[in-house]
Automatic annotation (TrEMBL):
The keyword Lipid metabolism does not apply. Coiled coil: none annotated. It comes from Ramlibacter lithotrophicus. It comes from the Bacteria. One of its GO terms (biological process) is amino acid transport. GO terms for molecular function: transmembrane transporter activity. Keywords: Amino-acid transport, Cell membrane, Membrane, Transmembrane, Transmembrane helix, Transport. Its main location: membrane. This is Branched-chain amino acid ABC transporter permease.
Length: 295
């Protein structure tokens, strides 16, 4: 049997695939955080709760109304995006221009409220969400058996991340968004509705979190704690990539997922802390993050 560093290749590649799946979720969630912080200067601690709400929205639609997975991929992000718009209009718009700490505290409170509502209704035990029939089973690649759904998660996440990066960095709409956050009055003088753009930006970030939640639902148990268990790691990913850097969040999320997978093979005890060790090293060498701009 072929081995890599003394590890059977099947086990090695299996952990690599698991790392890619985790990295895909890290990339999508950190992408939403980076969009909101980079364009609105809000540290959105409610992001993990919105991820959880997206997963629960898909599960509730399936259990109560028979809405299948493919419709849930469309409807859950729209629902949670609308919730994000309400949060931005009702609360966050009052904090623009203030210290980001106020936004962090407010969104942390919103996260606790959302988590408490779902814990009260569904408890902390996980709810199962079935893998869609079209993606059931696995494909034998010869050197490993690849679950079809996990391959779909990786491909879909990369496509969404790259599409978001292209929209913000390479289109006129993205240029308006970046200009509106730098000098809102000047952009408004050209007839651009900056408050509307800001509102939709937060809604889009919430929708990205919900989309990640729907993708995660068949992989892990849907539980009110799923967001809080993940958000600290995602914040570390954003810090390593550079606060507000879209490309940094994508690359760092995928890379750290793979590194975490390798760590489980060679030193399992360190797999839960390797991300934070890397964050500490990066901050000592480059405080702005790998892709961030120095002040």
């Amino acid at each position: 049997m072929t081995e890599i560093f003394g590890i059977p290749i099947q086990a090695f590649l299996g952990q690599l695939m698991l790392g890619l799946v985790n990295g895909a979720f890290y990339a999508m969630l950190s992408l939403g955080l980076a969009v909101i912080f980079g364009l609105l200067d809000i540290v959105n601690f409610a992001h993990g709760a919105l991820y959880m709400v997206g997963a629960f929205a898909a599960w509730i639609m399936l259990e109560k109304w028979g809405v299948n997975y493919w419709w849930a991929l469309l409807l859950a992000p729209l629902i949670v995006g609308a919730l994000g718009v309400v949060i931005e209009r009702a609360f966050l718009k009052r904090l623009y221009g203030l210290d980001p700490l106020y936004g962090l505290l407010l969104t942390f409170g919103i996260a606790l409220i959302l988590e408490g509502i779902f814990r009260d209704q569904y408890g902390v035990s996980g709810q199962s969400y079935p893998v869609p029939d079209a993606l059931a089973g696995a494909t034998n690649l010869g050197f490993m058996v690849l679950p079809n759904y996990r391959a779909w998660v990786v491909l879909a996440s990369i496509a969404v991340c790259l599409g978001t990066w292209f929209l913000i960095e390479r289109t006129r709409l993205g240029a308006y968004l970046r200009a509106g956050t730098e000098n809102a009055k000047l952009v408004q003088a050209f007839g651009v509705n900056v408050p509307m753009m800001v509102m939709l930006t937060y809604g889009a970030g919430a929708a990205l979190a919900a989309l990640a939640g729907v993708l995660a639902a068949p992989v892990i148990q849907v539980t009110p704690l799923m967001g809080s268990n993940l958000i600290i790691v995602v914040f570390a990913v954003v810090v390593i990539g550079g606060m507000g850097s879209i490309l940094g969040s994508i690359v760092t999320g995928l890379a750290l997922g793979i590194i975490e997978g390798f760590t489980r093979v060679f030193y399992p005890e360190a797999s839960n802390v390797v991300v934070f060790v890397i964050m500490a090293i990066v901050l000592m060498i480059r405080p702005a993050g790998l892709f961030g701009k120095e002040a």
